[in-house]
Amino acid sequence: MTPEDDDTTTVDSQATEDQGAADQPAEQSAADQTAEGSGSATSDTGNIREPNENETTAIDAAETERASALTRALQLIDALLGKRPADDTDGGSGAPEITTDDQRVIDAAGRWLLTPQVNSTFWDTLSTARDLVAKNQALNAAHHIDTTKNDYAYVYGLDTVDKGLFFGMPFFNTNSNCRREVVTHEYFHFLGLGHFYSTTTTGEALQCAHHMAELVFDIATGCTLGCESAVGSCRP
Ligand SMILES: [Zn+2]
């Protein structure tokens, strides 16, 4: 429950979100993806405005933490991918020398990508995840406020980064670990990822914005599930 060392933003101890609230961006995004094509983000401008100063501060902090987490996760993933054996179906070509950082990636992948064994499936899965992280890193959306949506945030789905990223009031009433996970999660929706919160398969985990965002923060910070309690849970 200890905030990570580099978390310098104020943690809102008044977080009131619950599992239902955590799921709301999921539902919202799915609904909005359905609406895509029949309207635009600005068709209902009465509820949409630009962020005020305090909101901008909170959003920018989350974006900064998203950027650093993506960078760190990519570093560690790439370091491990560089050790992929030429023959990865058995130990005959020699097992790679696994560092503490490598083990961090392996453990996080086991938790979020459901890859308990370091085998060829693991390497292929990690490579796919790596590309998604890099694509997330390359995106930057404008920020808007939706004053009526009771959600943390939502986007309009695949390839709609130009429409921007929309924040509801709950985003500003939760903690900073939740906020950075939400922002990172939403950018994965721009890449076409959906929701498979309860999946038991690697294939679906790779298509789930939740699993991918948690993977990033698990690798980069050791802290995950920030939206499910005051600050989520952190490992050393
Ligand atoms: Zn979502």
3D structure, described in words:
- By secondary structure, the protein is an alpha+beta fold.
- The protein has a single domain, classed as Collagenase (Catalytic Domain) (3-Layer(aba) Sandwich).
- It is built from eight helices and six strands; from the N terminus they run αβαααβββααααββ.
- The chain has helices spanning 19-35, 53-81, 100-112, 120-137, 169-172, 176-190, 202-205, 209-220, and strands at residues 48-49, 143-146, 153-154, 165-167, 223-224, 233-234.
- The longest helix is centred in the N-terminal third of the chain and has 29 residues, at 53-81.
- It is elongated.
- Mean pLDDT is 83; it is low at 1-43.
The main pleated sheet reads as: 4 strands, mixed
Question: How many domains make up the coordinates?
Answer: 1
Low-confidence stretches: 1-43
Task: Name the overall outline.
Answer: elongated
The kinds of small molecule bound in this structure are:
zinc ion
CATH architectural group:
3-Layer(aba) Sandwich
* DSSP, total strands: 6
Instruction: Tell me the span between the first and last alpha carbons.
Output: 11 Å
Counting helices, strands and paired strands, the structural category is: alpha+beta
| Rg over C-alpha atoms, rounded to the nearest angstrom | 18 Å
**Order of strands in the sheet with most strands:** 1-2-4-3
Beta-strand content estimate: 5-15%
CATH H-level superfamily: Collagenase (Catalytic Domain)
The helix fraction, in percent, is 40-55%
**Which fold name is given in CATH as the topology?**
Collagenase (Catalytic Domain)
Q: What is the CATH first-level class name? A: Alpha Beta
Overall pLDDT confidence: 83
Number of helices: 8
- Helix-strand pattern, N to C? HEHHHEEEHHHHEE
